[in-house]
Amino acid sequence: YLPYKETDVVSPLGVYGNTKREGELSVLNSDIDGLVIRTSWLYSSYGNNFVKIMLRLGNDREELGVIFDQVGTPTYAKDLAFTCLSILSKSNQDKISSKGNLYHFSNEGVASWYDFSKAIMSIGEVNCKVKPIETKDYPTPAKRPHYSVLNKTKIKNDFQIEIPFWRDSLKACILKLTKE
Fold first, then answer.
1. Options 1, 4, 16, 114, the catalytic residue
2. Could you please report the per-residue DSSP string of the chain?
């Protein structure tokens, strides 16, 4: 597998993916000045998300089964927000107002949900055993891709941004959560 580029054919797997794609097309085909930034596996210290759920479950249980055969990149919402603000604050009007500009952003690196969970428990100092399981052993109504890594070359080149490694950003998020 290779990370998905912005020019790759899109084939959403369900309602969620289809509505995301419809939203992208609405912006890309409109006359407004703007761009679309795709992201993946978003989490933060706010709201309900995978990191907070894993920390809570890890503190409540001795063992968790987590999917190992779905691979992507966790993305800290703070890093995405910083990137959006950075793009808007620089003189990027030509790229923002060019019709059809689509970018990918996620933190650097690759992980399975299992890898992500193990890191959450380790960094959060939670004593919970994480067992790898297959997608078929954890059925959900929504289909998820087995590989959803995004190629970020275009956003890095067009806006000269450096993207943090997912594990470093996870440490920052968990540190913020433990201070609250």
1. 16
2. --PBPTTSPP---SHHHHHHHHHHHHHHTSSSS--EEE--SEE-SSSS-HHHHHHHHHHH-SEEEEE-S-EE--EEHHHHHHHHHHHHHSS-HHHHHSTT-EEE---BS-EEHHHHHHHHHHHTT---EEEEE-GGGS--SS---SB-PBP-HHHHHHHT----BHHHHHHHHHHHHHH-
